[in-house]
Amino acid sequence: MPRGGSAKRRQKQKFYAVYKGRNPGIFDDWVETRLQVEGFSDATFKAFPSHAEAESWIYEQRDKEIRQENARLERDYPDTDDDPDAGEQRGSSYPPLPQDNTGLKVDYPDLDALPARLNARGGDGPGAPPYVSPPERTPPSFTPRQNPEHLCPLKPEQERVLALVKQGHNVFFTGPAGSGKSLILKHIKQYLDGVGRTYAVTAPTGIASVLIGGQTIHSWSRVGKGDKPAVCYINKLKSTIKHPDAKLLGKSAKSGETTWKETQVLIIDEISMLSPDLFEKLSVIGQHARHVNGHPVEAPFGGMQLVMCGDFFQLPPVEKDSEKTCYQCGYPITPREERSYLPPDHGYITERIEFLNEIHALRVDSARWSHCSRTGRDREVCGHLWNETIKYCFQTPTWFKIGFNSVVLTQVFRQADPAWIEKLGKLKVGQVTPDIMTFLLGLRRPLGELASGVKPTRLYTHRKTVVDENDQEFKKLKGTEYCFDAIDEGTINKGTGYSKTVNPQELEEYHFFKNLQVQKEMKLKHGAQVMLLFNIAQNDGLVNGSRGVISGFQQMNYSTFMSGRVARDFERPMLKKYFELKQQDGRVRIPLVHFTTHPTPIPILPVSWNTEIPLFYGSMSYGGRDILGLSRIQIPLALAWATTVHKSQGMTLDYVAVDVGHSFAPGQAYVGLSRCKSPGGMQILGGGRNLEKAFLVDEGVLEFSKRLEEQLARDKENGDGDGDGEAAVGQEGGLGQKREYAKYKEEDGSGEFEDDVHDWERVSSHPTLP
Ligand SMILES: Nc1ncnc2c1ncn2[C@@H]1O[C@H](COP(=O)(O)OP(=O)(O)OP(=O)(O)O)[C@@H](O)[C@H]1O
């Protein structure tokens, strides 16, 4: 690449944008460009004096192509009666992109200019940037996924969620533990795959994301820990914010902005665990990352369709006060003892926080508004407003602005016993009535070892207890220890057909592998308590969470191994590979597990966990998707004397002992108890006379749930929706409102955030109000 050289040479530097060619992208060398376009039929390319202009031209070409493709689709496939609202929705909520594509230069606001606009109103404050309507939600070209999973059909109230998603609404759906939220998500994914919409499946924690076959929201959005101010991510998105695995992927994972721009539907599962600060920050980042011609988009999250799911009665966000930073300036938040609060009717609050009354109604203490008093280089006070009693996303202005269509699921599937379901329903809202108390005290009886040798899995609130207990119990076993090593692989498949294997040494750095519950090196002994980590035979009750005990190991030859499980055709190559790599003298060792549900031991053969991460080259991907495929082949077992309540969220367990006594977070005891199918297979640990107090419930969550139910009842009365549990909560505000365009600074915004923080540190803090 001809960088450097004389000033004259630099002046003549050209950037070649190749839109259609062998390897589309931007090149700064004509020889390299020629290789991409010469002899390539239909090659489309152009030279520009700057990289930015070259990039803008590519965006322009792509928008043009998408519009043409849409026009073709509309012509060839006019809306049918099957989905009458889909076309209407597209047309009504999302005005088309401005036709005037001149001045495509992409500008980002600088740090000093941003505080006023990054206030809680998401850009509505004085000096706010020009907002534009979100771009059209358009289907890109796609390749349907192979082997779609056969899913259990949805019940009518679950179908309702899918219907709303199909209609293009922003949807929030909730319901008690075991009401099928994860199942609905799987259906949504299948639908989106089928229609070729670009979507991201995310969750706030690694384990939750793996359970739904997605990635963490931090990794997808490129915010990492997410502790820096929004402006920092906005400034860096374009050029330097890389995929968390970028150092492994090299150039290929360059621009985070493209991920944001190309995603049409963002799914966030376990939304109760997402920090409200990060939720708001992501929305602002989305508004900027999905800019139209440099203008941030007005709609929250930049106008992508949002599907959020979870149960706020379950686990809350894990956040330590000491680790919190100001959402606007990124400085550590003012320590509790130094905080000063503003009067609830202070103009500084009322002018800046939208939906203030609604927020206060959700048990946000109106007397706890505080502001960040850090001063910057120019002695300007940061002034960002925050309220320490905001704990959940539904208490943020962004939540109201999104205007979700909400669905409350009512039917529980995990448990079959109606009396137990009713009790769980009461415990969920903290109602430990005398009869429930008596019932729970009865569950403190010890659970013995089952005929299979299975002991109850102990669910603890603290991780250290779990690690210690599993280690100790494993060491106590006398037999031979066998180690099962996973086969980890990574391949980059380019849209052009070329594929490249990822260096095996680098694989363990990938977040996907770190988040898997199944270990790379798994040690097992005869007598070890284990849990199945994969649905291997649903009809036979061998599902994720099934409990068993290792009853031996079997040496299998090739034919026994290959016929050891009814594998689907596409799994055979995986089994074959495992055998070839692991066999010794023509045999492989396989653990035998005695499950609670089966009279005889079952050999547990390896399975594979796979993920596909779309890669974005330079600024976008063309001509098919460039995909990073990662996979781990391993025996799907984990030691199961103990696990944490946090890890168990989302699982269904057979035989458990739940440590209720040490619960420290709202929803924790409820999550623990609701994992188990029936109280017969459950023991309660600890709690003593304080059992009643273990079922902590957040007042705000109670209020939110109450308002949701009331809205639902009102809608039913008014005949809105079809009474299937849909409620449009929040306000329709935000979308489609006209904002005045204002000028803002044209700077590249590439200043390093860290330097600014150091500057702040050098300047004494100013606890006065701006
Ligand atoms: N329509 C349905 N028909 C039959 N079984 C169902 C249905 N919906 C869900 N289930 C079953 O109920 C169990 C719990 O479902 P799922 O894990 O989706 O619930 P969830 O609401 O996500 O639970 P949690 O909040 O605890 O994560 C699963 O075994 C699932 O297969």
UniProtKB/TrEMBL annotation:
Pro residues biased stretches: 127-142
Name under which the protein is recorded: ATP-dependent DNA helicase
A GO molecular function held by the record: ATP hydrolysis activity
Coiled-coil stretches noted in the UniProt entry, renumbered to this chain: none
Enzyme class of the recorded protein, top EC level: isomerase
Any Pfam family hit: PIF1
Domain AAA+ ATPase span(s) in chain numbering: 167-313
Biased composition regions of type Acidic residues, renumbered to the chain: 749-758
Organism listed in the record: Tuber aestivum (summer truffle)
Catalytic activity: ATP + H2O = ADP + phosphate + H(+)
Cofactors demanded by this protein: Mg(2+)
PANTHER family (alphabetical): ATP-DEPENDENT DNA HELICASE, ATP-DEPENDENT DNA HELICASE PIF1
Keywords, ordered alphabetically: ATP-binding, DNA damage, DNA recombination, DNA repair, Helicase, Hydrolase, Nucleotide-binding
Gene Ontology biological process: DNA recombination; DNA repair; telomere maintenance
Protein family according to the UniProt entry: Belongs to the helicase family.
Region (Disordered): 69-147, 714-770
Compositionally biased region (Basic and acidic residues): 69-78, 737-748
EC number: 5.6.2.3
